[in-house]
Structure formats: C-alpha cells, structure tokens
Amino acid sequence: MPATGIGAPVRRKEDHRFLTGRGHYTDDINRAGQSYAYFVRSPHAHAAIKRVDTSRARAMPGVLAVLTGEEFANDKIGSLVCGWMINSKDGSAMKMAPHPAIARGKVNHVGDAVGVVVAETLAQAMDAAEKLAVDYDVLPAVVDPAKAQMPSAPQIHEIAPSNTIYDWQIGDATTVEAVFRNANHVVKLDIVNNRLVPNAIEPRAAIAEYDSGTQTLTLWNTTQNPHVARLVISAFVGIAPEHKLRVIAADVGGGFGSKIFIYPEEVVCLWAARRIGRPVKWVSGRSEAFLADAHGRDHVTHAEMALDGEHRITGLRVKTVANLGAYMSTFSSSIPTYLYATLLSGQYAIPAIHCEVNAVYTNTVPVDAYRGAGRPEATFVVERLVEVAARELGVDVADLRRKNFITRFPHQTPVIMNYDAGDYAASLDRALELADYGGFEGRKRESSRRGKLRGIGFSTYIEACGIAPSQAAGSLGCGVGLWESAEVRVNPTGSVEVLTGCHQHGQGHETTFAQVVSDRLGIPIENVSIVHGDTDKVQFGMGTYGSRSGAVGISAIVKALDKIEAKAKRVAAHVLEAAEGDIVLKDGNFTVSGTDKSAAWGDVALQAYIAHKFGGGELEPGLKEGAFYDPTNFTFPAGCHICEIEVDPQTGESEIVAWTAVDDFGTVVNPLIVEGQVHGGIVQGVGQALFEGAVYDRDGQLLTGSLMDYCLPRAHNVPALKVDMTTTKCPSNPLGIKGCGEAGAIAAPAAVINALTHAIGTEELTMPATAQNVWLALQKSAHLHKAA
Amino acid sequence: MSAVPLTVNGKPVAADVDPRTLLVQFLREDLRLTGTHVGCDTSQCGACVVHVNGKAVKACTVFVWQIEGADVLTIEGVADPNGPLHPMQEAFREHHGLQCGYCTPGMIMTALDMVYRKGHDLDDGTIRRELEGNLCRCTGYQNIVKAIAAGAKAMENYNKPAA
C-alpha cells in the first residue's frame, strides 16, 4: 500500500484551493440578481416594542423590502426550536419559549432582530436601516445566571416562572448525602465557567434563492449540518417542504459548534427571497456576530468532593446554574445536562455522584454548544476538585489521580456512561516523563531567582464523543438520531466518490476519509473524492460536531466499503471465472487464490458497469452502496495535559512556559491532522483560561462586543505545545476510532488554572485569569495572610 | 469620481467605484478575487492582508481612492495558477499550517512580507510577534509558525514574484 493509508501523515487534498485563494466560502458565492439583507437589531437587552415605523426606510433608494415581526407573523412562519427535550426533577417538560426569527412585541437581548432591510446594495440596505424607527419601552434586564431566579429578577418569558427552563438532576441524592456524612475529607469549590464567544474566523453568511418555476428554495449557508438545517427549517419553521428546499454548505471557515444551530438570519433570507423574488444575501459583520452567534459555557457551580481516609474519592455533589440566554438555541438544553453531568466521574472510580442543574433565561445572547460543549465544564469541576483535594491533603497531585483512576473496563459510572476502554495511567506516565515532572522543583527555584512564581497544573480529562447511539440519545430527550450515512460510488473507470453526511469546516475529511478508501481498496488517494455539504447530493446526514466524524462518519464509510468489496468480488468472480469465495482483493488487485489469475480494480469496476460478463438474472450491474452506521456506545477519548506557568507577582502577568499533552484517541487515521486538532483545541482552552470572557454590564450591554474588546489568543500569547499519544482502541466501532476534535479545549482550562493557582498559592482565581485577575488574587491572598 | 487606475496581480485595472469602497470590497466584489477574506470589522484578524506596493496592508482599512496607481498583489497572484505553489504556500501545505483555510491567504501574505523585511532565518519568537495582526482560530498557531520558518528558508532560492 502506498503511504496514503490509515495512520499515514498524508498532506491534505483540500489545501490547494485554500492556499491559492480559490476556496468557495459562502460569501464568495454570488447569484444573478442578488440583493442584500441588513438586520436592524435591538439596542436594548429587554424592552417592549411600542411601535415600528418602516415608512422612511421603505422610501430610501434601492430598497426592495423592509420586513418586521408583524409581516413574519402574518406569513405564519414558525418559531425556531430547541431539539432536545429535558424534563425537570418533577417530570415537567422544559419551558421552551417561542423564538421568532424577527422579534414582535418584545425584545429579549441586545442584538435581537427587530427588522430586516433588503436592498439592491449592502450600502443602501445599511443606509435604509438607519431610517427604521422603533420605539421601545425599556424594561429591567437580568444577565447574571446566579440572579435570574431571584424574585427581584424581571420575568423574561411568560412560560418560564422565575426564568427557570428546567430544574434537572442526575444521580442518587440520598446515597451521595450518606457518602458525604461519612467522608474523612470534603473539598468545596465555587466555580464560574466563563461565557465565551466562539469566533470562527469566517463570519456566518447565507444566500437564499427562490425558483418560482419549480417552487424550490436554495440556501447557501455556513452550517456544520446542512441536512439538520433543512429538516428544522422545513418541519418546524415551515418555510418550505423538505423536498423543495436545498441547503448547500460549501467551504465553511471554522465552526466550533457555533455553526450547528439554526439561526434567525437564514430563515429570514429564505422568507425574504421568496417574498421579493430575488436572491437575498446576508453576511454577518464580526461585531454583529458577537450579538447574533450563540455563545458558549456560562455556568455558575458549587461543587464538593468527598474522600475517605485512604484518599479514595467516594462522592461528588454538584449544583450548577446554566445560563441559556434569551432563547433556547437548537441544542442548548442538552449541553449543561447530558453533555455535562454525565462526565462528572472523570477518569475516576467515584461510586456516588449527584448533580442538579437549573437552566435559566437571561437577557443575553442564546448559549449553546461551543467546542467541547459541557465536557470542558465537567472537566473543570472534576479536575479542579482533585487538584485542590491533593493540595489540602498534602499529597502529590499525580499520585492522588493515579490512586483513583478507573483501571478495569467496561466501567459503569453512576451518571449513565459506560466507559469501554482506556489506560489512564499510561497517558499520565508518558506526560510526567515528557514534562519532566521530577525536575519541576529545580525549575521553580530558578524562576524564583528571577522573581517569578512558577506553577504546574494537571488535567486528566475524559470526554464522550460520537455523540451517541440514536436509541440512547432518544431516551434522553434528543429529537434526532445521531447515526451517520455514507454512500460509496465507484465510477466505471475505477475512481471513487464517497458521499458523507458529515461536514468539514477545517477537519480535513477530504483527506482522512479518502485515506480510509485508499487503504481498503488499494487505490491511489488521488482517485478518491469526498462529497459533502449539499442536500441535493448527499441524501441525509447528521453533520459534524462532538468529535463524531471519525468515530461515526468513517464507520459508516467502512460499512459501505464492506458492501462495495462484497459486490466487487462477485463481479470479479464472473470476470475471472472463479468461485466468489476464492476472490481476494489486495493492493488494488483481485486475484483467485491458488492461481495466477488477476484483474485490476479498474477492470472490475468497468465490468460492473458494462455488464458483459454476467446476466441480469445473476447480478445487478453497477457498483454503488450506501450504509447508515449507528454507534452502539459513546466513544471515550481521554488523556493527560500538563501546563507549566510563570507569574510575575508584581504585575500578575503570566506566561505558559511548557505544555505537554498525551491523548488517547484510539486509532488515528492521520497523525498530522490529529495533532493539528489538539493544538487548536488547547489554544481555545488556553483562551478560555487566560484571555476570553464575554462581559455584560447590568443593563445587558455586551461590553466585549468586538475583537477590540474580546481577547482571542494570538500567536505570541501561546507556547509551543508538546503533543504525544497513547492508544487503546475503541472497541465499539470497526476501526477503533475515538475522536479528537474537542480534547484540547476540554483539557486545557483546568490545566492552566491548576498551574496558576499552584504558582500563586490561592485557589480563588476566576477565568479569564488576566494579569489583573491574577494580581487581584495575589493581593487578596496576601491581605488575608496578613490579617491571619 | 473618475476611475482609479491600479495594477492587480500584474494586470492593469480601473476602479470605477463609490468613494467609500474599501480595497477588499473592490477586490472581492468587482474583480471577484475572493481569496482575500473579511473576518472582522476592526482590523484585528488579518484575513484580508494583501500587498500594496510590496508591503502587507489590511485591505479592509484602505479606500481604493487612497492607493491610486498602486501595485496590488493578492493571494491569487502569489503563484501561477497553473504552475507549482509558491514555497510559502507549499510550506503551509507540508506543515499542515491551515485547517479551515479562512485565515490562510492573510497568513501567507503576512508571512511573505515578514520574509521580505526580516530575511530567511526566522526564529519562533520573531514569527509569533510578527503574527500580532493575524488571527487563527483553528491551528493554535503552532503549525503556522513552523510553516513560516520553513517557507522563509525555502524562499532563499526562489525568485520574488513581481509585486
């Protein structure tokens, strides 16, 4: 096999078009007769809309339409919905408030759309938007999740008293109470998991076009899951029947979760395109994206860990308030529940866990999945508790972890998950060695001579990827299945097209998926094309998120390849005049075992189509097979990240001086791409820990509303990363793949904060740990020490 | 306003545009050179970097009328479309210095400018500091830094494109 099979660091097939400026991102696409949409957004966090006057805006040059919530409601366009039903403790359903694409009667966050102007040019649309007069009665706002349920908080949606969406729990509270009563040591932490703005570098965009002849709508959209978008827009929003709506997501410039969701803007573009009979294009500005793209995280948590006299973790008790913003985004409800609390066992054998989650509405941008989605929050809780436990007990942080690691598999946690495979000690040992843990004290002394504080922090994380078997997801409230589809089409000349329901927006599927085909069929990777991102080409698929494309998407391809191989062997048997059972496919050649007869892959492909060697009664012509793969379990990537950091106590400024990551992703198809995913994930996690944080003032104005105010990590803010891997294969899918896309973002924040708190000697440090926050923590701690 | 004469990727063009037209809009919308991207509205991200008279410029921050007569090089003009990649492009490919590809054209134009100003022997610290004006959300920068160092070296024996 040439060096393009599974495990080879193949250079990416998709790179050429990106390197030469010839990608096809949504904003690069222009349609004949295209018009431009510009949204008018609420400047208030919470206000009644008294009056909307469109007359002056309509009179502006070039204006084709000015549309408001009234027209939207009159046209009976449905509400956006959240697709994962979560029930409260008492069995009552979550309180999902209507989410019209254009607000009517009341706005609920700064950036809530109140109207759209469509004009011949973008400049004309923007000019006219300034003339749209909206009178507001400003209402009090609530932005802090910890305050949303207080009696003094304003009520945002009628359906949700106390702004409570659900009051959910998992685990056995009684057992956990007993464990805590008998504990020898209890660690307690109050944690704020900071609100983040995903900021894929490509802003969202949509172009909608209506063909009145066929009554068909086409939407070019920056989405991670075009089929789910089509399903929701047709079945729930009701813009067009599913078979009359085509969604195309060509090249998409990063997603990180934020492009999973069905947003108001694409719905409005479709609606407007049909109303005015012209293609309508919308491209988000960056500052607009801060107010219109779903944010991530935003948890307030109290967590306690119980340990026995031998330092074994006996229980975990967690109470979280999760901010879901002003409306429930597409998958928002599942993030702080089944993607969060089910991971609270971490890598540890913890016999009893109880977690309560209250999800609340606030007058802020909706919150949904962002890289890691719930699992970074869970990892932060568990890994902070373990680290602080070790410090309080005066034992080594690595030893305490090792003592509590799960070592036998399968392992059933008290919070649903059944871990299938892993070797957590192997990752820890390798990381300790690479990080030269033994040499830390020496390095610390050296730092101290330069007046710097030095700390080291660990994060031994676990995640659940895939995301789930469909039945399991359904039993937990998910409105869709989480399988994946693949279709393998072999052309008469032997080249192969693979249609996948996954979607790439940086992951390199056009290379890795082709590697799997090249490996299996023994054909050059150049002869394989991966087709994705168009609902007219791919029949159905669930898209890409939750590190699922390898574990689920590739598994579907493998299943389809099984069928292709079986069919090709039947054709080859006719070509070579041999028994089907004697045909062997190896290195792109069919041979008859025990003979020197052979036929090349391309010859057999051609014979499948010309059908000269077999009769229609014996065998169907053609070589095309499809498969749907539904996973039988989650996959459980895990690993150990170690961060070493230096702090200047005079200024609070910190610098990460070393990073070691040892991850177990199961089988790796392309190590170059996997390492790239780890790098990117870590830096997003470092961003959360040190730089990023969405800040609202108490009136609900987003103070960090542009890239001037919201700090994304830059190249000089982050260190060179040492990345290595250990491997235990995933037993539940054919290639043993676990997934790698989110690991870094899940592991990193806890490692950074564990290192920083180690350096500065106080646990009271909030994210983002900016120089100011670190300096304040140092002052507070010094003050307390003085007072004591 | 009369048309503004410019040279873009070696070809003379006349920009007959509204005075508020930014260079990036002219390139993307009038010339349909969509390799130059827009990632922000505050000149932070660097996805729109092109060369104007041989120097890296954020095309979102320049009005077309400001650069009358200038020589503009975009990502589309860095290498012959039918020939091999430029060594800097090749280095990004070889070292997996791109994922979603959106920031990539700006990164490459910045990297070329870096080599023109700082030479072929670039250390990590220099590259990271010089990338101050370019944001990437996918790669964590590690492989971009590696690619620029390698690309700079490889350019020692390469003719600078006429820009």
Distance between the termini of chain B: 27 Å
The strand line-up of the biggest sheet of chain A is 3-5-1-12-9-10-11
Number of strands of chain B: 5
Return Rg of chain A in Å: 28 Å
Q: Which structural class do the helices and strands of chain A define? A: alpha+beta
The major beta sheet of chain B can be summarized as: 5 strands, mixed
| Strand order in the largest sheet of chain B | 2-1-5-3-4
Short description:
The complex is a heterodimer of chains A (788) and B (163). Chain A has 788 residues and is of the alpha+beta class. The N and C termini of chain A lie far apart (70 Å).
Write a structural description.
- The complex is a heterodimer of chains A (788) and B (163).
- In chain A, helix 16 packs across helix 17.
- Chain A is globular.
- The longest helix of chain A is centred in the last third of the chain and has 27 residues.
- Chain A starts with 14 loop residues before the first helix and ends with a helix.
- In chain A, 29% of the residues lie in helices and 23% in strands.
- Chain A is an alpha+beta fold and 788 residues long.
- The model of chain A has no long low-confidence stretch (mean pLDDT 97).
- Chain B has 163 residues and is of the alpha+beta class.
- Chain B is built from five helices and five strands.
- A five-stranded mixed sheet of chain B has the order 2-1-5-3-4, sandwiched between helices.
- In chain B, a hairpin with a 2-residue loop joins strand 3 and strand 4.
- In chain B, helix 2 runs antiparallel to helix 5 and helix 3 packs across helix 5.
- The two termini of chain B are 27 Å apart.
- The model of chain B has no long low-confidence stretch (mean pLDDT 95).
